Amino acid sequence: MKDVRLSALNLVPIREGQDDKDAIKDMVKLAQNLEALDYDRYWIAEHHNAPNLVSSATALLIQHTLEHTSKIRVGSGGIMLPNHAPLIVAEQFGTMETVFPNRVDLGLGRAPGTDMMTASALRRDQHNGVYEFPDEVEQLATYFGPSNQQSYVRAYPAVNKNVPLYILGSSTDSAHLAARKGLPYVFAGHFAPQQMKEAMSIYKELFEPSEVLQEPYMIVCLNAIVADTDEQAYYLASTQAQVMVSITRGKMQPVQPPTDDLKGLLTPREFEMAQQRLNQSLIGSEETVKQKLEAFIEVYGEIDELMAISYVYDQNAQLESYKKLKNIIDTHFTDNK
Question: Dihedral of CA 20/26/29/34: which sign?
Fold first, then answer.
């Protein structure tokens, strides 16, 4: 089994009783704590018209996080490229790479990160952004590359900065693209596990070596909550279940405290869906989560990096979960010899 690196994704959610500024402060504090734990990278999502998330201006949040940390890589999980002109993205991330060298990642997604009405308000060309995604990824690679390979329009100061690009996806389409371009691939297993196995297989089997990568690099994002006992972990995970149901109901409410009566809060169908999602997550004690991760690798194949997202209401419990997850990876999935 190959060594597994560990990173984290943050959607910058607002907890019940908090406001926008509190959520951003929590984002920075978590980044600082994960840096102290030697997490490899910390990514921030892009979502729009979501009253319970403060991750609409992703580049600004990345810059803010970089300013308050010193070594952890910080990036986008991701920049939803149909919403942005590649030139502007290159200028922004080239500038951050100039100020914070070798610490900036650019994860790219082809979905709008919002509802269709909001997407129409965001998109530069209204409807073609998704189809132009492969070409725009290529444009970005050119903007960050050497000057002698560029045309008249250049994204200063991005030239020669070589900001690493990552293809994000929740379907097989993105797997084909990442493989064809020889780029790292990040699958959103935390919310779209349905095509995960097929997408991972496609990426690994069809991967074409590039100047960036000689071998495939597979990152999987999963929900993860680790506690002293399985019972405690599943109690904390009742918050995650409420988040998921809030999305399906279209309410987008702030992150709620955990509950002992999840069944009473949800309809039978919602409860069944919540249980299914919890079963697909890395939830439990350290020993249980170790076994779940081993089982995941057995079914889906080896991964290079686990990117964890953890919806836990209590910040101390959330940090403790990330500590325990790091211990699992260091002890059982990394060769420290």
Answer: negative
